[in-house]
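hey
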């Protein structure tokens, strides 16, 4: 029997963000939505972004590249 690999495909609403080990204030990401499908992502917010992600099992791997 083949095991099903966990994937992050879904719509995500951030509850906590860090950049470079620094906590991002909630007001900076309130109202954002992250959509992951396969190897692509889209961030819906005032400053929309999209790009390519790489996964290692059920974890995001570096680098993440976007526009």
């Amino acid at each position: 029997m083949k095991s099903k690999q966990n994937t992050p495909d879904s719509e995500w609403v951030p509850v906590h963000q860090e950049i470079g080990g620094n906590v991002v204030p909630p007001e900076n990401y309130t109202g954002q939505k992250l959509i992951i499908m396969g190897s692509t992502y889209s961030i819906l917010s005032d400053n929309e972004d999209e790009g390519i992600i790489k996964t290692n099992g059920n974890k995001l791997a570096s680098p993440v590249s976007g526009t």
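The two ends are 40 Å apart (CA to CA). The chain has one domain: 1-53.
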